[in-house]
Amino acid sequence: MTVATRALAILGLILTVLLPGVAAAQKKVVVYTSNESTLNDLVFGAFTKETGIAVEPVVAGSGVVIRRLQAEKDRPLGDIVWGVSRSLLQTNKALFSPYVSKNKDAIPVEYRDPTDLWIGNNLHLLVILQNTKILPADQGPKGWNDLLDPKWKGKIAFTDPANSGSAYATVTMLVDLWGGGDAGWKKVGALFRNLKVLNRSSLVFQGVGNGEYPLGISLEYAGPMWASGGAPVKAIYPNDGTIASMEGVAIIKNGPDPEEAKAFVDFVNRKDVREMILKATFRRPTRTDLDLSSLPGGLPSLQQVKMLDYKEDAWTDKRKETLERIKDLIQESR
Question: Are 165 and 61 in contact, with CB atoms under 8 Å apart?
Fold first, then answer.
């Protein structure tokens, strides 16, 4: 064997050994996420460690994420949308690809699409956050109706519903709670005059946690999450009732990495992963086989909270015109 032949043989052996590893290292999934960094970092790190699939996150509010998907529909750049509301998933299901998750049977039927275009991960109870250092615990509101008091003007942080599915659910829930129709909208308009409307959900609980605002309308997990870090924050479950706003995950149709996307969908709803997420970030799972009483956060069962009926399908169908009406209320309140 000549020197040249021997060199070629050695090179071939090296490539045979190395190329599979290179290919594996190049596996990736692009996730459009509306979750904050704590949850993103936790899940993406664990997923990559277990599967070897790198995650390329694109982080924005849920409304911004969906608008990006709509703009990219003819040439999708992402594989997964994660952390957006049921309403947004349902109204944009034409952008998704069906997939029967390995965890489908663990998720109640009301929290998954009947044609498997999306599946729920989290249930977020809509709550009032209170900073008990600047507003003593016994002086806070007890329910939604208390937030109409003029003394709270400018002291209640809230997310712009154009950028947040849960904020949209909050407004429309309150329209119905306060009588529906023009009567309900009139009281919602009064509420907006007391609100400080912010661009992202994370700014609400950060503002309350840091003491910038005494109150915020937010999601259940934010209370125990900030309290676990030593912040004087508590979650108020309104005595006039609340709803559970679902967030889910979907595979983007014609995305560049479909198999990696399927692996991610299966991972985020697996029982042990849901326990990891709850322990670290206090997110209530859609799965019903976790014992909340034995896990951190002290989350009450749904049976312990006054839950309201919510006309989610009806509000989803008229989302566009409803957002226009909300936009007008925000402008009028300034």
Answer: no
Q: Tell me the pLDDT band of 25, cut-offs 50, 70 and 90.
A: low
Half-sphere exposure of 150 (CA within 13 A, CB side): 0
The range of the structural domain enclosing residue 137 comes to: 126-244+302-333
Domain CATH code at residue 35: 3.40.190.10
Cα–Cα distance list, 165 to 52, 134, 198, 224, 279 (Å): 32, 29, 14, 21, 24
% of the chain with per-residue pLDDT over 90:
79
**pLDDT score of 123 more than 50:** yes
207 and 321 share one domain: yes
Half-sphere exposure of 110 (CA within 13 A, CB side): 9
Q: How many CA atoms lie within 13 A of 181 on its CB side?
A: 2
pTM for the structure as a whole: 0.78
Residues found in the chain: 334
Assess whether 43 and 88 both reside in one domain.
Answer: yes
